[in-house]
Amino acid sequence: LESIIFTVGDCIPSEEASKYEDAIVSLSEEILLRSQEGLPMFDLILLGMGADGHVGSLYPNSEQIHSTKLVEALERPDKMSITFTPKLMNSAKRLIIAAAGESKASIVERLVMVAPSADLPASLIAPTFGASEVYLDLQSGSALMQNAQEVPES
User: Fold this and answer.
1) pLDDT (average), residues 128-152
2) pTM for the model
């Protein structure tokens, strides 16, 4: 089986995002299947979630969340990166979001309790045809466990 590894260069993030998207789109369906809509379907996308609910470089209320592209650039004074967009993430066959640490407890609770919204990017990630899973450690899931203990039995 042919190994395919794409690396990101040190150019301007918007140029790198465009190159990366072109590389993904150019792969044959023998290598990377397509969804019914023609979107590339990765077998697995593994994401970490930040304390503010960001995944990848999709930060709360950022313009990248609403992009129609597959790969977007993030160009801020404190961070230069590229990221898959929700459009591409949600076409995955399987998607895992992992969160660890006490600093994530309140955002994990919010993720479970609220409707999807741009101020909580992780809430917008739900594969259209695939499966999604969330992995937590005891600390990041502590608010959920506390709420479960407070629910009276019927």
Assistant:
1) 85
2) 0.88
